[in-house]
Amino acid sequence: MKGIDRRHFLKTSATLAAGSAAMTYAAVPNGPNARIRVAVVGLNGRGQEHIQGFSKLNPMNVEVAALCDVDENVLNKRLDQFEKANAKKPVGFTDVRKLLEDKSIDVVSFATPNHWHALGTVWACQAGKDVYVEKPC
After folding, report:
1. How far apart are CA 46 and CA 52, in angstroms?
2. pTM score
């Protein structure tokens, strides 16, 4: 039997804890305007996983409403992939500052390179958004 290493355990535990917390929160009856609109920033690597994870929460009143990446080719590719998988196309942005001006976005999930995590998080908080950002290992 193969042993489990600390990193794998922590990663799996964190994912399960986050999922459990999200399901507990979403189980509370929501009003008609309580849909949570999420934007994912940084669409390569972990960004794809963020998109998939938030998409799974759609039945719980969570909507991936916007995608943002500085590389327009990557952005267009992810928008097309999302539309094919979900029959709906989110709004696309190449500039996170423009995304943060959108009053309809409630949560911003950052999957950018590590050196952009802090600044993007600060900007999003200043814009009144809730933020999900991963600390680099």
Report:
1. 10
2. 0.76
- Output the furthest CA–CA distance in the chain (Å, rounded): 52
The identity of residue 74, as a single letter, is V
Domain 32-133 has CATH 1.25.40.890: no
- pLDDT, tens digit (0-9, with 9 covering 90-100), for 52-88: 999 999 888 999 999 999 999 999 999 999 999 998 9
Q: How far apart are CA 121 and CA 108, in angstroms?
A: 8
CA distances to 52, 108, 129 from 105, rounded to whole Å, are 18, 8, 7
Contact 82, 42 (CB under 8 A): no
Q: Is 81 left (phi over 0), alpha (psi -120 to 50) or beta?
A: alpha
